[in-house]
Amino acid sequence: MKRSAQSVPATKIKTTVEDPALVERRRAQLTQAAIACFSEHGYHSTTIRDVAERADVSIGLIYQYVGDKEDLLFMALQAVLDGYMRQIPPALEGITGPLHRFCVAVQAYSRVNGDSVDATVLAYRETKSLRKERRSAIMRKELETNELMAACVRDCIDAGLFEDIDVDLFVYQIVMFCHAWALKAWHFAPKMDVDTYVERGLRLMLRGVLTKAGAKWMRKLEASGVAPAAPEGGKKNAGHRRL
Amino acid sequence: MKRSAQSVPATKIKTTVEDPALVERRRAQLTQAAIACFSEHGYHSTTIRDVAERADVSIGLIYQYVGDKEDLLFMALQAVLDGYMRQIPPALEGITGPLHRFCVAVQAYSRVNGDSVDATVLAYRETKSLRKERRSAIMRKELETNELMAACVRDCIDAGLFEDIDVDLFVYQIVMFCHAWALKAWHFAPKMDVDTYVERGLRLMLRGVLTKAGAKWMRKLEASGVAPAAPEGGKKNAGHRRL
Amino acid sequence: MKRSAQSVPATKIKTTVEDPALVERRRAQLTQAAIACFSEHGYHSTTIRDVAERADVSIGLIYQYVGDKEDLLFMALQAVLDGYMRQIPPALEGITGPLHRFCVAVQAYSRVNGDSVDATVLAYRETKSLRKERRSAIMRKELETNELMAACVRDCIDAGLFEDIDVDLFVYQIVMFCHAWALKAWHFAPKMDVDTYVERGLRLMLRGVLTKAGAKWMRKLEASGVAPAAPEGGKKNAGHRRL
Amino acid sequence: MKRSAQSVPATKIKTTVEDPALVERRRAQLTQAAIACFSEHGYHSTTIRDVAERADVSIGLIYQYVGDKEDLLFMALQAVLDGYMRQIPPALEGITGPLHRFCVAVQAYSRVNGDSVDATVLAYRETKSLRKERRSAIMRKELETNELMAACVRDCIDAGLFEDIDVDLFVYQIVMFCHAWALKAWHFAPKMDVDTYVERGLRLMLRGVLTKAGAKWMRKLEASGVAPAAPEGGKKNAGHRRL
DNA sequence: TATGAATGAGGTTTCATTCAT
DNA sequence: AATGAATGAAACCTCATTCAT
To answer: Which residue ranges carry the DNA-binding annotation (chains A, B, C, D) (predicted)?
Structure first.
């Protein structure tokens, strides 16, 4: 007696609730709870009851806003990626110098990443737990985010500040470097804070990429404190740490 | 919620079988099957029965060589990391030039990685599914592997071929870059092969690191074909910008 | 991570147990329990736990011999219909007179029916709870059973004992009449026993069907006590009008 | 497992609405929707939401006119049986000849049955899903309906048109024969239409029951076209309709 | 009177693990 | 040492029913 399964776009999520505003609010609530639970114990080890308790709702309510558990994962991963998309553009607002924009973009990226280490790790752990169409949707979102940074890189190249490098590869190198902070937090967190981490890493990576003109601009930016400055003192971890 | 079982080092695995040679053989067999299954479907979605069938043994037999399912995961992850440890030293055998050694080490690393993409992804997905002590054991193993490359880097610095960089950070940058091939295979695999990928990435990363002397050596190595050579004419990839 | 679904004949039932003899034995055990439970409370109101308890096995065991709850229903209904198929032929063994065979077949049929009133009712209640292919399999079985009686009817016609009637319709009339005993047990059971019921009904139905020759034979059979005899003096039922 | 609620006659249904006309209207609306849903998917597989949607009302509204889901089933089954009660008497209006009345009654009965095959099947499937008191109420209704036909039969006997048969048994035989059209629609519907079915069946059944006088009358009726006529042509389904 | 979001008990099913053979 | 049938806890999900609006 199964009811037939309409072929809906794989990214639409079932709900029995009619008020769209309510749906949005509840979904946000559930997504937050899901991110917290999944980050902590992983997707499979988290029960629906866990999420319900975390969100302070009943189990039944969840299934009024979501078709199944996987939907929660999908929503969670989308929200994580949306975080990047949402934070970078505002950070770039009003900034014009291409190199400056690039540095700010990386900084913004690394901050989102640093603020939600668990969520980033979650994305690496559980994206494969989604069925294919949704996995693709997530990947597409990742590429869109990368594109924000890629645009900055291209501007730098066009402005003669960067060598004519492989943009895609370079951007992914930066992204992976940022993610490494989250993925290898057990290694880095005790040694330094995110900003130090990014600062140092960026300097390493930029050295091979900046043109002479780019290097000159960089020094200016460093002087004004908006770009990775040469470490003024105790290299390894001046005493911060967190996580 | 049981934790410590102090008498037994957390990394020892229970068995009811007495012949150590047999234990070793069976465990190897199970580990291979586990890696295959876990890589394909993930740890949680794989059943003991799946592993038993893949290993062509009975379910009961598994529990004679293993205490529980998590042991299989532990064995699998260890084996994956051991792969790196096992492949790099032989590759370095007989090679003396520090820069040459560095390049070969990276190459060896990236090849293990390229040959077992699924296993690398597995490590990222499922390390957190281990209980803490074992997670630490896995991390320790990762650091040991990194140390193989770190030694090469330090030699290059000491030989004046590399600037005086943050070794740890640089090594992790390379490692992450290699892993990215596996983690983002969906993005890179359709565009190029591993060797091209590493070649290009390495060149990007080295430019900021080589001293003048290092750069000279590099050109020599490239000429002799053992190091990332300037692309003579892009293959799949003729249209991309590059360094 | 779903495993692909082979298209097996819709009537094959999944098992994880390898020994076919054991499978058969356990399935029989489960089928009996299922018939009992389903007859008593209906299919939907019966829980798997109910069946497990009735069969004195664990819940898990059931799922080693059966794919899902519907399989239990299918097995139950098949077993019910098989009952008819199994009982009628032996009853006809050695009997040669066409009219005699017809009477014995009906008698056998009505006895199976009378012995498993609940099961017959179950078939009427729950056949629709099966998915289509299986529903068809059950219907096919019903027709096969009817064919046993249809053959007798045809023989009677060929022997000139029955008029040239619509065999199919006549057989179904008899079958429905038998089933009515079960379906309307609340009405008939307090008034008479099955044999009386069939005897009377049969006489009603035969009167319109027997040829003169048939009627003569019938009287002989009645005299020898193998066919519905004229009631010599109603039992429970002395006051009722009768044929 | 709760049972009796003695104060309220088991057939009274709870409502929070005071206007009796409204109650009646709404209940009729709900009953129609319930019959449709239950016939289609069965009682247990139908959700209250299904019924609400079919009736185009809210879920909450249902519970203002009905105590629980079983009430809907009860109302539905009552309505189905009422259908018979409602259709037969008008059909008999003005007809005086006992045999004529009998034939018309059967015809009317079979027509109700033929027009609501699903509903008849529903009654067979789900009557047992009612608690006992209500089941009895339904059975009583069935007997009342039968009584309409029994009266005709008795008149025929008294008029010397029928032999002195067991009225109760004969009526049930006819009723079951009619129901068989619904219950075995999968078998009969492809072969003939209801009227043909009833016509043929009735002739079979009447032959054993009509007295000589009855038979004469019958021929008259057939001649005037109001009774089962001898088939004029192609037996099996001259090409009419089906289910 | 009408609505529909919220609840949570309870059902089906899976699967790690045990243990008799 | 090897097998695989048996177990049952625990997970996901449904849906009758309530109640605030």
So the answer is: 47-66
Q: Which CATH class is domain D77-224?
A: mainly alpha
Token couple for A65: 């806003």
Within window 28-57 on D, which residues have Cβ closer than 7 Å to strand E?
57
Residue C226, Cβ density class (10 Å: 0-12 exposed, 13-18 middle, ≥19 buried): middle
The CATH architecture to which B76-224 belongs is Orthogonal Bundle (1.10)
Question: Domain C80-223: which CATH class?
Answer: mainly alpha
- The end-to-end CA distance of chain B, in Å, is 53
Whether residue D129 and residue C183 make contact (CB cut-off 8 A), yes or no, is: no
Question: Tell me: the pLDDT tens digits for C87-126?
Answer: 999 999 999 999 999 999 999 999 999 999 999 999 999 9
Strand F bases, protein C-beta under 7 A? 1-20
Same fold, C13-67 and C80-223: no
Low-confidence ranges of chain D (pLDDT < 70): 1-10, 227-243
Return the partners of chain C (3 or more C-beta pairs < 8 Å): B, D
CA atoms within 13 A on the CB side of C105: 24
In chain B, positions 25-84, which contact chain A (CB-CB < 8 Å)?
42-45
At C72, phi and psi to the nearest 5? Answer: -60, -45
Specify the CATH class of C13-67 in words.
mainly alpha
Contacts of B73 in chain A (CB under 8 A): none
Residues near C128 by Cβ (< 8 Å), separated by ≥ 6? C135, D42, D121, D125
Q: Which nucleotide lies at the shortest CA–C1' distance from A60?
A: E7
| pLDDT at B4 (0 to 100) | 43
Minimal Cα–Cα distance from D41 to chain A, Å? 6
Q: Can chain D be said to touch chain C, i.e. do they have 3 or more Cβ pairs within 8 angstroms?
A: yes
Which two tokens mark A125?
Answer: 């752990």
Q: To which residue do tokens 């309307």 refer?
A: C184
8 Å CB contact of C240 and D166? yes
C132-158 and C167-183 helices cross at what angle (nearest 10)?
120
CA of A130 to C1' of F9 (A): 27
Q: Convert the pLDDT of each residue in A168-226 to its tens digit.
A: 999 999 999 999 999 999 999 999 999 999 999 998 899 889 999 999 999 999 998 77
Q: How confident is the model at residue B228 (pLDDT cuts 50, 70, 90)?
A: low
Using DSSP's 3-state secondary structure scheme, residue B162 falls into strand
| Top-confidence residue, C110 or B228 | C110
Tell me the chain B residues in contact with residue C1 when contact means C-beta distances shorter than 8 Å. Answer: 41-42, 45
Which token pair is D54? 């079919």
The architecture CATH gives domain A77-223: Orthogonal Bundle (1.10)
Q: How many angstroms separate the CA atoms of C78 and D141, rounded?
A: 33
Question: Which residues in chain B are closer than 8 Å to A42, comparing Cβ atoms?
Answer: 44, 128-129
CA gap B15, B21 in Å, rounded? 12
- Residue B230 pLDDT grade (very low, low, confident, very high; cuts 50, 70, 90): low
Instruction: Indicate the residue of A163, A172, A209 with minimum beta-carbon distance to B180.
Output: A172
CA dihedral C139, C140, C144, C149 (to 10 degrees): 30
C-beta of residue A98 within 8 angstroms of C-beta of residue A155: yes
Which residue ranges in chain C fall short of pLDDT 50? 1-8, 232-243
